[in-house]
Amino acid sequence: MRKVLRGIKLEHKKNTMDCATEYLPTPNEVRISMSQHIGASCEPLVAVGDTVKIGQKIGDTDAFVSAPVHSSVSGKVTSIERIMSIQGTYDPMVTIRTDGKHERWEGLEPPTVNTREEFVAAVRESGIVGLGGAAFPASVKYSPKNLAEVNTLIINGAECEPYITSDYRTMIEQADDVVKGTEIVMKHLEMERAYIGIESNKPKAISLLEELTKDKPIDVVRLRSLYPKGAERVLIYEISGKALPAGKLPADVGVLVSNVTSIAAVAHYFTTGNPLTRKRITVDGDAVADPKNIMAPIGTKIYEIVAFCGGYKAQPSKLLMGGPMMGRSIYDDGKPIIKNNNAILALSEKEVSKIGHETQCINCGRCVDNCPIELMPTTIMRAYERGDAEDLKALNVGVCMECGCCAYVCPARKPLSLLNRMAKAFLAESERKAAEAAKAAEERGDE
Amino acid sequence: MHEDYRFGNLIVSGSPHIVGKTDTTRIMGQVLIALAPAFGFAVWSYGARAIFLTAVCVISCVVFEYLFEMVTKRANTVSDLSAAVTGVILAFNLPVTLPYWMAVIGAFVAIVITKQLFGGIGRNFANPAITARVVLFVAFSSEMTTWAVPGHIFFSVDAVTSATPLGILNEGGAAAGLPSNLDMFLGTVGGSMGEVSALALLIGGAFLLLRKIISPAIPVAFIGSVFVFALVAGQDPVFHICAGGVMLGALFMATDYSTSPITVKGKIIFGIGCGVITMMIRLFGAYPEGVSFAILIMNLIVPHIDKATRRPLYGTKRGAAKGVM
């Protein structure tokens, strides 16, 4: 019998489930960050004063772990400067004033690929990154070192975060693209089987995709609606029964995982030649007047997106990029959206104040009982507080997905998820220092 | 600039940005509800003095907590209700006839010495109410073992001494002198104010289990090991699980979060330890009852149990699992 991983029941609040995607009118100005992915930041390929068109590559780098960036509008580059991004880093930001012509760049056409290398190169050119939120470059994901052993593709359509329905709308509105993208990846990476995991609270998407994959080696898997079924480790375990040890990639257990929206973007690129320049985003939260799903050019400022959704109906206390469990709180709504934005949530004071104040841990063990991957958050917290890197390693802190279940259930309102993140960073830093010290000692010994 | 810092008051914090409804106050409130049946039984059994003794314990616990935190300039935690819970459980551990001033000393030992001096809620290593009971037992052994005859519903209880069932057993009393198991289960026997009625305590315990405030591991391991030990020793197991403080201890005191292990495995070891030590004291020790000492001894080794029973990462156990593939 397979053990069922723990999870927590959340209010789904999928208010925008039946809101068909509306296209945002092209904004007058977009700001496109050169770092919208995990890995090396891109260098701008354009200069101030240049004219650019939709889909034109405006940023790239030679680094392997990276993805190029394309213009989402046609217009003129007005500035290139380092501005703090949503992630809190200073990367070049290309500002483009749109000319209203909506011209598509001439160089765009569907790629023709014959070999796996050409396929990976084409995926890289598309600028696609993990659109579930991780922003890991798709081309890197599709080049595992042990390709021969990787035979299962898992498509993540769980969308377990409250509020967000953008992946759901992709599955409904681009169901053909989801299936086609899955087939393209399976074909070029020579994979035998694919599974599309969808939480049971999306019956329409499940039946639609079941219908479309009837005669194909693709199975739709109905997942229990229990947060965080869409977390990569949990999804892999639910579908394949395989656990990922610390420091291992899905490919190490023979699996690749792609988000539904990423896979639909692959199909879109291989059909039309259009790289990733726009994004479907759920706009919701109790401070938003008219919650919607919208398709926005990448680089659109958040306040313009909120304005399209009727503006704020209450003063927002928190603005989130992503869902309430794992999303990032943003300090400024003048920042532009990036590729892996799947939701903008504006929460009012009333909603935010429900969290209350942090008090002392009462050792109740709810965090331990509710951790999907069976970590011990309070034990990790104490090891972190006394600076015990060795113990943190023994406690497998590196495996933490930061899903937030521990902090959600904590009656003392301890920010356990954040403490885990800090403990991970502390462990990584300690290990780096230890490695450096060992290396220095070795060099001294050589002399 | 207009578009930058449109809302300078946006809160930036780590995820998650929502939390569940259960906080510490809600948990303690539910424990108070779970203690209500046993309290009701004590009032029915002993009369108004049960109310007064409980009130003295609760008020002095809350006041000591408030004063200590005021003097040491710590955040006030009276509103989390944990001091009130300690007060009720302390009262349950006392004979109903105990002089009030002794109860106040018990509250001082529980809240100031056992809880606050070690850092307040969640940081004490021994159960406050049990430590207080043991201190009072050692300091005032005569008053702490004077049991009123139950069934006197008077404003003030006459200090008529009756023996507890375990006392009779300890004196080598004949089986005929012992009350029936039904009396033991219902609680119409001598003993501390809140520990006599197994039935009332089980109702409260069932409530805590249903609301998932406590896990069944400790009560089942504790009561189960008392049962098995009695059986093996040739004694009546039902008598032993209903007698003395086993029910109160197993359901309400050994399950105290701060002073019990965190994993299920640890909780089972802890529960068995409590049960075995209880029976060893009852059968081989000089004292008739051993629940308080058993829990206190096990409290002390919780850090070691916690260290030895750390949980492995998901999927690393034997026989991991087939998915749908």
Short note summarizing the structure:
With 447 residues, chain A is an alpha/beta fold.
What secondary-structure arrangement, pairings included, does this model have?
The complex is a heterodimer of chains A (447) and B (325).
Chain A lengths: L21 E2 L5 E5 L9 E2 L6 E2 L4 E4 L8 E2 L4 E10 L5 E9 L17 H11 L11 H4 L10 E6 L8 H8 L1 H14 L4 E7 L3 H10 L5 E6 L8 H9 L14 E5 H13 L5 E7 L7 E6 L4 H7 L7 E6 L6 E3 L12 E6 H4 L13 H5 L6 H9 L3 H6 L10 H5 L6 H31 L1
Parallel strand pairs in A: 1-14, 9-10, 9-12, 10-11, 13-17
Antiparallel strand pairs in A: 2-8, 3-5, 4-7, 5-6, 7-8, 13-14, 15-16, 15-17
Helix pairs in contact in A: 3-4, 4-7, 11-14
Chain B lengths: L23 H23 L1 H24 L10 H11 L7 H16 L12 H12 L1 H4 L20 H6 L10 H6 L11 H13 L6 H16 L4 H6 L3 H8 L10 H21 L6 H10 L1 H7 L17
Helix pairs in contact in B: 1-2, 1-3, 1-9, 2-3, 2-4, 3-4, 3-5, 4-5, 5-14, 9-12, 10-12, 10-13, 13-14
